[in-house]
Design brief:
The chain is α/β, with parallel strands linked by helices. The chain is built from twelve helices and twelve strands. The C terminus is likely disordered.
């Protein structure tokens, strides 16, 4: 499988060169053509910041982004803003968390679906309208000809999310980034949206990055998953191995916290403690204050990501002797930002 996206040593700091806080630290991962990759982590783990950095949507005055993001032979962090605008919305598109705030309330849904077509293709207004209505129909919206002329406030949350999906497909993208696309929806509508996305992916073979905190969504939709903790990847694994053989203590804790349908319990298991603040990271492994397997070494040194074979990699000293590091230790985000 050819890689469509290669992210190498991506680091994001908020602030300026005098004072910056690292929120994403030395991320490296790849995405194959037609692959569905899940990114899972608690709130504040850096999931959405990573997607915004890939899309070059972070404010350059308040953030410092270093590393490489290779897409179709180009480093997206090095090309001009004009070149990036030709990629964003055309070859790479994004579905945001809250459709009501992502859609323009004073424009009809049809006009918003057509907008990227006019920006990126040479298409007539009639053909753009026909394609937009076809996308609304594809996304399961009833009476698409009527909905084309309606405004976002006239639709339910599930309908608005379908409009967002239609917008993201307007230019037949190679990569779709979905940032918590079902968070604001009820369970029934969530299932419908996920089935819709699975169907569209099967028809188009586009690559998808699914950002979520729900391991159930990942198990149903993705083939591979990255587990984020405090701005780092702590585990990179195929989904089937995530469920059958989780390696990192944090991943194991997430799975133990899931309710078991075949077991009765009065209380779910939890991971003790809280995610550390970005400006107050503990020394050594960021997870050690919450880790039941932490050693003295974990409190002083940060482990690298160790390749374990079979497509699995884990950031934990428990597995250091099993394989060699996937790369040499990197500088801290603050050191990189100030260099």
């Amino acid at each position: 499988m050819r890689n469509l996206l290669d992210v190498k040593d991506l680091t994001v700091c908020f602030g300026d060169k005098k004072h910056s806080v690292g929120v994403v630290r030395n991320l490296s991962f790849s995405l194959g053509e037609g692959e569905a990759l899940g990114i899972v982590g608690e709130s504040g783990s850096g999931k959405s910041v990573t997607s915004l950095a890939v899309m070059r949507l972070l404010n350059r005055e308040t953030s410092i982004v270093t590393g490489e993001v290779w897409f179709e032979g180009r480093d997206l962090l090095q090309i001009s803003e004009k070149e990036m605008r030709s990629v964003r919305g055309d070859q790479i598109t994004m579905i945001f968390q809250e459709p009501m705030t992502s859609l323009n309330p004073i424009q009809t849904c049809g006009k918003q679906i057509m907008e990227p077509m006019f920006l990126h293709t040479h298409i007539t207004k009639k053909d753009a309208k026909d394609k937009a209505i076809g996308l609304l129909r594809l996304c399961g919206i009833p009476e698409p000809e009527q909905r084309f002329n309606e405004y976002p406030h006239q639709m339910s949350g599930g309908m608005r999310q379908r409009v967002m999906i239609a917008m993201s497909l307007a230019c037949d993208p190679q990569l779709l980034i979905a940032d918590e696309p079902t968070t604001a929806l009820d369970v029934t509508i969530q299932a419908q949206i996920l089935e819709l996305m699975k169907s569209i992916k099967a028809q188009t073979n586009m690559s998808v990055i699914m950002i979520t905190h729900d391991l159930g969504i990942v198990a149903d939709f993705c083939s591979r998953v990255l587990i984020f903790y405090a701005g780092q990847i702590v585990e990179n694994t195929p989904v089937e191995k995530l469920m059958s053989n989780p390696l990192h203590p944090y991943t194991q804790g997430l799975l133990k916290a899931l309710p078991k349908l075949h077991e009765e319990t009065d209380r779910l298991e939890t991971i003790e403690g809280m995610v550390p603040d970005a400006d107050d990271m503990p020394e050594g492994c960021h997870f050690h204050p919450r880790c039941p397997s932490a050693s003295k070494r974990c409190k002083k040194e940060c482990p690298d990501l160790f390749e374990m074979g079979g497509g699995q990699a884990v950031r934990c000293f428990l597995y250091e002797g099993a394989r060699t590091p996937s790369r040499t230790p990197s500088r801290t985000p603050e050191e990189k930002a100030l260099s």
